[in-house]
Amino acid sequence: MDFKSGREKFLESWSSMASQWGISKSMSLVHASLLISPDPLCADVLMDQIKLSRGSINTNLRALMDWGLVHKKYLPGERRDHYYAEKDMWTIFRQILINRKQKELKPLLDTLQTFSDLDDDSPEATEFTKVVRDLRDITYKTDIVLDNIAKSDENWFESPFFQMLK
């Protein structure tokens, strides 16, 4: 496979995988392009490479910077802003985990908390409250585990995790 075909396959695969994380196709294409680029790129180069509008490129760059996956870099003698992706895969994983947790788990915990105390003693309400509390408890425990993973370094995670798989 030549580089151009490999690059296109990678961009396609990355955007497909990223959609499972709740990241839009255009955002994942911008990220993947920066991720595999050896040098920082400006918005114009990204527009040419992935055929997105300037507005879409700029919006996605801002979102990727907010996620901590892309950084802006000043290049001497250049007037345009250049961007590069975080290349450390553990850092990428942690940043995605932190953002997904904030976007999905925190609101779920908040919602479950509002349902956990009902002023109704009917059997249906009792069962509902029990199920919601159990769900809240497991979600809270998951939140704690994800916090520990996000705060840990790569070696902490790899050794116990891979030993369990052996």
CATH class of the largest domain: Mainly Alpha
Q: How many domain modules?
A: 2
Low-confidence stretches: none
Could you name the CATH topology of the largest domain? Arc Repressor Mutant, subunit A
Largest sheet: 3 strands, antiparallel
What fraction strand? 5-15%
Radius of gyration, taken over Cα atoms and rounded to an integer in Å? 21 Å
CATH 2nd-level architecture of the largest domain: Orthogonal Bundle
**DSSP E strands, number:** 3
Q: From the helix content, strand content and strand pairing, which structural class follows? A: mainly alpha
* Major sheet strand order: 1-3-2
Task: Give an overview of the whole structure.
It is a single chain. The protein is mainly α and 166 residues long. The chain folds into two domains: 3-85, Winged helix-like DNA-binding domain superfamily/Winged helix DNA-binding domain (Arc Repressor Mutant, subunit A), CATH 1.10.10.10; 89-165. 72% of the residues lie in helices and 6% in strands. It is built from seven helices and three strands. A three-stranded antiparallel β-sheet has the order 1-3-2. A hairpin with an 8-residue loop joins strand 2 and strand 3 (82-85). Helix 1 (3-20) packs across helix 2 (25-36). The two termini are 34 Å apart. The model has no long low-confidence stretch (mean pLDDT 86).
Topology:
Blueprint (H helix, E strand, L loop, with lengths): L2 H18 L4 H12 L4 E2 H8 L3 H13 L3 E4 L8 E4 L3 H27 L7 H29 L2 H12 L1
Antiparallel strand pairs: 1-3, 2-3
Helix pairs in contact: 1-2, 2-4, 5-6
